[in-house]
Every structure is written in structure tokens, then in C-alpha cells.
Amino acid sequence: MTKPTDGLERALLASLNVTLENMAFEQAFLRQGDDFDIAPDSTWLWARLNILNPVTGKMFIRVERACAEQLTENILGPDPEENGEAISDPMLFDAMAELINTVAGRFLQKLVADGKDFGIGLPDTGIGSCCDEKTDEVTRVAFEIAGQHHLIIGVQGNDLIALAMNRG
Amino acid sequence: MAFTILLADDSAMARMFIKRCFEIAGAWDAEFLEAKDGEEALELTGTHEVDLVVTDLNMPVMDGTAYVKTIHENPDIYQGPIVVITSLQNEAKQAELLNYGVHTVMSKPISPASISELLETIPGWQPPDDEESDLL
């Protein structure tokens, strides 16, 4: 795994927080240490999308199911018509896909200079882990939400990592 | 007659969130039509009286740019305001969309406050009576 720079951590934190504060009324904090580095099992969900230009790569979010449920509940809000039944897996995946879509857009706005165009693909989702996070082609940052929930954002692909490290 | 807003986004969660922002911002009695891609949105736009189109860009089947371009080239389908709410917001994309007659391009995530400001600029939008609002 490529170690993220401080600038990259700050850029991801800012992109995540503007998303969480507006959509889910939560705030994330950088998580120190490596105790989050556990094998992702079925208690983790992920959402990932392709970055299409100006460089290619992928971004993903990996989140504990309990955290995904909390964030999804917050996004749904108190409307009993919308939130009267248990949150289903498709709802969790849809919410996590929308989160990575929004975070990636905010992040690329910071990376791509002079208002130039950038492109991202449609998200896909799953359970466990979406890639081998320990290779050099991945850098990732861990966050904590509400003092207990864990959320990881990863950047995958050498060109995208290089851009993120330089501009982040 | 209710103000009718068409929401096009492939994410049901995003549509629900945008709808809630509009309701909080004052459009609590608006009628919402929902589409999960540009093709569905195009069909709804052609078959319903729509006062405002709100669309994402990154959608399957027909993306938001193709949808907006199709409307622009076929003004008999719809001539009202179009608002794009997208994670792909940048100056280059905004310039392209404004050429297609888009009213405003907004960056995700939106908020009730940003939608409230937007509504004040939408032709034909009138806030509902406070008295009716108070009854809710």
C-alpha cells in the first residue's frame, strides 16, 4: 500500500465531510494508527467507481455495515413513509454508491486544475473488499464517524495516485 | 395546480434526498415525477406538464448531457428551466451545459439552503401560502 501524503488525507477528509455534513448530518475524523487494518469480511460493504479522465483509476469507499446503516438512516431522515421499514441491502448499497459518487466528484474538483473537465463512471457495490488494498497501486485513508464507526476511502491506480499526491 | 418537478437520477437515494431538500426549501406541495435515467426522463417530459426539470449527468442508458441536448434540439418537448445537480461539476462541463440552455448547474451535495436560493431564480416558481404551510 502506498502511504498517503498529508495533503491527500486533508483533501479526502474535506471531500468526505462536505458530503456527510450535507447528506447525513455527520462529521468524519482522520483515524490514527493501523488498527483498522483488519481483513474485510461480510460486515464490510464497498462502493467503487472508475475515474475516466484526466487520468484513469478507481476510487472506493469501504464501510462497516453498522456505519452504512447509520448513514443511510440519516440520509432517509425522519419521514415515516420513507423510513418506516427496515433498511434493506439495496438501500445500503445505493446510499454508499451515492456517497462515493459525491466524494469522488468533490475530490476531483480539487485535483483537476483550472476548471477542466473530468469524468467518472457509474458505481458498483459489494460485500467485503473490492480489491487487494495492500498493493502499491492502492493508497487509502481511514476515518472515524461518531467515535465508533469506521470508513475507508481508497484511491487505486498509479496515475491517479500520482495526481492525488501532487495536487492533494 | 401543483408545481411539477421532474427528478432524473439513477440513485433512488439521491432522488429522495433531492426531493426532501426541495420540500424543506418550500416546495412542500410540489408534485414530483421521478426517472432513473435520461430515457425515462425524456418520456415523462414529453407526456406530462413539467414546470422544472432537475437532472443528474452520470446515468445509465441515456446520460444527463444527452437528455439535456435532446430537449434543447427539440423545444416542442419542453421549454422550461433545467437544473443539473451533479458530482461532475466543473467550468468546462458547465459551459457545455449552458450552451444547451441549462438554467443552473449545481454541485453535489446540495442542501435545503442551496435549493431555496435556486427556487428564487426559477421562472414560474411561487412559494406556497404560509397559511397552508402552517396547517401541515
Give an overview in words:
The complex is a heterodimer of chains A (168) and B (136). Chain A has 168 residues and is α+β, with helices and mostly antiparallel strands. Chain A has helices at 6-23, 65-76, 80-83, 89-111, 158-167, and strands at 28-30, 44-53, 57-64, 119-120, 124-127, 138-145, 149-156. The longest helix of chain A has 23 residues, at 89-111. Chain B has 136 residues and is of the alpha/beta class. Chain B has 6 helices and 5 strands; from the N terminus they run βαβαβαβαβαα. Chains A and B meet through helix 1, helix 2, helix 4 and strand 4 of A and helix 1 and helix 4 of B.
Determine the N-to-C terminus distance of chain A.
Answer: 17 Å
- DSSP E strands of chain B, number: 5
Number of helices of chain A: 5
- State the strand order across the main sheet of chain B: 2-1-3-4-5
Rg of Cα set of chain B = 14 Å
Q: Name the CATH superfamily classification of chain B.
A: Response regulator
Nearest-integer average pLDDT of chain A: 87
**Would you tell me the structural class of the helices and strands of chain B?**
alpha/beta
CATH level 3 topology of chain A: Chemotaxis protein chec
Q: What percent of the residues of chain B sit in helical stretches (DSSP H or I)?
A: 40-55%
CATH class of chain A: Alpha Beta
CATH topology of chain B: Rossmann fold
Q: Give me the number of helical elements of chain B.
A: 6
Give, in order, the helices and strands of chain B.
EHEHEHEHEHH
Shape type of chain A? globular
Approximate helicity band of chain A: 25-40%
Q: What is the name of the CATH architecture of chain B?
A: 3-Layer(aba) Sandwich
